[in-house]
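Researcher: Good morning. I'm working through a list of sequences from a screen, and I'd like to move beyond sequence-only analysis. For each chain I'm collecting a predicted structure so we can compare shapes side by side. This is the next one on the list. No need for commentary yet; just the structure.
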Amino acid sequence: MNFDANVVGFGLTIVFSFLIGLEVKTYNRHISTQKNSGFFGTTRTLTFIGVLGYIFYKIDPTFKLYISGFLGYTLLYALFYTHKLKEGKSSVLLYLVSLLIYSFGPLVVLFPLWMATFLFVVVIFVLNAKGMIERVSESTDTTEFETMGKMVLLSGVILPLLPDKQVSEFIPLSPFKIWMAVVIISAISYGGYIVQKYLFPNRGYFLTGLIGGLYSSTATTVVLAKKIASTGQNAVIDAGIVASTSMMYLRLIVVAAIFNASIAKLILLPFAVFAVIGFSISFIFLGNHKSKTKGVAFVDHNPLELGTALLFAFLFVVMMSLTTYVTEHYGLHGLQILSFITGLTDIDPFILSLLTGKYSVGETQIVAAILIAAGSNNLLKGIYTLWFAGAKMGVKSAISIILLGIGTISWALGSLS
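Model: Good morning. Structure tokens for this chain:
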């Protein structure tokens, strides 16, 4: 049975307007005792506003009558708002919500119905999220919004202006693709950072390691190793340290899948194997803990900071140029040595250069280089654990990470033999 489009549009306008009106009524009742309450109208009023928007547009599709209705309603609200300002009340939320309701009319006629439905869901969600929004606003550092704004500017405005042509024989990517890669990696790290800082602000040691591995397994290892030194050896902290390295393996699989699907298929098996081994060791440590653990504060730099992104871009270009030079002049053995050395630093720029560049070695050699870099990085984290936690207290988790590193490097060398 097919319904007339006008019937469907008019019916949806009434339903959405009425339901939002009920939500506004609930919201108004909730804040009616607050000083800044400045609402007027009822559920019926908001429903009629939606109906008027639909009728005005259908009568005159040129929007003249529709805009006149908008101006008339705005004037009415301005008179009401002036009166409320004298009483020290300044809320304009109802005015904004009513304008959205007024837009349902042309919206259901001119655009697919999912747009009006999506708008309805957003309005209901925001009205219900008052408490959550206040808590997030109070706990969020406002400078991070400024940082995000800068990155959005560089990504959405500057990125399209960058040339998409190769500018050097040693750098096989264009400036556009280089910065696009930086944006993607920063976004992945930012997701882990947000989860780490805001969604689980008072998490336990194991959860810290688990989530921290999505962001930076090295930084997480240092934080947890210091906790071992300050609180005494704890099996749960050991589990968190090993879990962060296990998550690193999974993170690298995702990064590889984004930038080079064929390489991702080749590293899937070894990285999945070592991730499973790492998680198994973590659960063994968890099974041995005897005391409850408190939360741990994880403090690190926002990966969307402009300086951090520019440094990553610089290291990315340097690693790509260096890898091109080494593979052309020293071949496979030079690449293996370079992989091991870079594993003792931040491996993301190097691995990203391997995934996106074009070199004189095959995929097998590139996979081996990624494995060696990841294994070498594990050796570094093992050293960090011993250094910050102490040779006695950090030995269990350090040995576990080092063994994972040795196993990863051995797998790489075995694949080349």
